[in-house]
Amino acid sequence: MTTTIESPRAPRTVRRGGVNWEKWGWIYMRVSGVVLVVLIFGHLFVNLMLGDGVKALDFAFVGGKLSNPFWQIWDTLLLWLALIHGANGMRTITNDYAHNRLVGVVLKGAILAATVVLLILGTLVIYTFDPCPAGSPADLLASFCTAG
């Protein structure tokens, strides 16, 4: 029994015109990976190394951080880049291992739906978070909030 391996120089099938989504997905993974390293290490450094370190992380710390527009944008970039990066990786795994077309479509649809829902919810939390909501009972508010 002999096995024939196709020559790596064999002519490829001609690709139709249009956007090469696989190429742009590959480029996105590299660029977003580099940016994510900076965002993640910046996030960890500020949260764990500056100030009082881990013991300073509490509701007040998060509330103060999310009230600053700089950190809102930082966290939004981190959220969006990480979720899309992860979803693109899952899409690639699905392309590699889902050999049935219907299964591939269902899995990629589920990945897309989960990503969109998490992006919307996460972005809403970042921009609408209020540690001291108006009209809340004083016993339910954090200690740094003024009742009233």
TrEMBL record:
<dbReference type="InterPro" id="IPR034804">
    <property type="entry name" value="SQR/QFR_C/D"/>
</dbReference>
<keyword id="KW-1133">Transmembrane helix</keyword>
<keyword id="KW-0472">Membrane</keyword>
<keyword id="KW-0812">Transmembrane</keyword>
<keyword id="KW-0408">Iron</keyword>
<protein>
    <recommendedName>
        <fullName>Succinate dehydrogenase hydrophobic membrane anchor subunit</fullName>
    </recommendedName>
</protein>
<keyword id="KW-0349">Heme</keyword>
<dbReference type="Pfam" id="PF01127">
    <property type="entry name" value="Sdh_cyt"/>
</dbReference>
<dbReference type="InterPro" id="IPR000701">
    <property type="entry name" value="SuccDH_FuR_B_TM-su"/>
</dbReference>
<comment type="pathway">
    <text>Carbohydrate metabolism; tricarboxylic acid cycle.</text>
</comment>
<dbReference type="GO" id="GO:0020037">
    <property type="term" value="F:heme binding"/>
</dbReference>
<comment type="function">
    <text>Membrane-anchoring subunit of succinate dehydrogenase (SDH).</text>
</comment>
<dbReference type="InterPro" id="IPR014312">
    <property type="entry name" value="Succ_DH_anchor"/>
</dbReference>
<keyword id="KW-0813">Transport</keyword>
<dbReference type="GO" id="GO:0016020">
    <property type="term" value="C:membrane"/>
</dbReference>
<dbReference type="GO" id="GO:0046872">
    <property type="term" value="F:metal ion binding"/>
</dbReference>
<keyword id="KW-0816">Tricarboxylic acid cycle</keyword>
<dbReference type="GO" id="GO:0006099">
    <property type="term" value="P:tricarboxylic acid cycle"/>
</dbReference>
<keyword id="KW-0249">Electron transport</keyword>
<keyword id="KW-0479">Metal-binding</keyword>
